[in-house]
Amino acid sequence: TEAGPVRVLSIEGKLLLGNGDGELEKAMAALLAEGHKKIVIHTAGVSQLDSGGLGAMVAYCYKRAKDQQAAVRLVIPGNTRINLAAQTCLGLLFEIHDNEKSAIGSL
Questions:
Q1: Which of 84, 71, 78, 86 is nearest to 40 (CA)?
Q2: 27 contacts: CB under 8 Å, gap ≥ 6
Q3: Per-residue pLDDT at 3
């Protein structure tokens, strides 16, 4: 979806090695190819995240965005199914917000 110059990418379902990571890669590549430089990734719909999904977030979202000078924010709401260890790892690389409005406002 769009919020002015910011694009919001909502992730749904499982984000596991071999299950969901390819869709994330394609969606992020498409946004960056279109020249978008402000991206919010909303994780409310993520039902499961493993180390492969975490790796996909780092490789496809953090690294590729950084390589293209794009800013990425994550929305991880309080009722998330993403475990605290994964949230901590993601927090080392991404600015994390608990709601979309806050994440969009930070860009």
A1: 71
A2: 9
A3: 67
Distance separating alpha carbons of residues 23 and 10, to the nearest angstrom: 11
* Residue listed under structure tokens 């919020």: 3
Report the candidate in 89, 14, 86, 84 with the shortest Cα–Cα distance to residue 46: 14
Please give the average pLDDT of every successive group of 10 residues along the chain, which has 107 residues: 84 84 87 96 91 88 94 92 87 94 95
User: Which pLDDT score, from 0 to 100, does residue 82 have?
Assistant: 86
Tokens 């969606």 belong to residue: 27
In this prediction, residue 84 carries a pLDDT of 86
CA angle 41, 59, 25 (to 5 degrees): 60
Q: Which residue has the tokens 């979202």?
A: 61
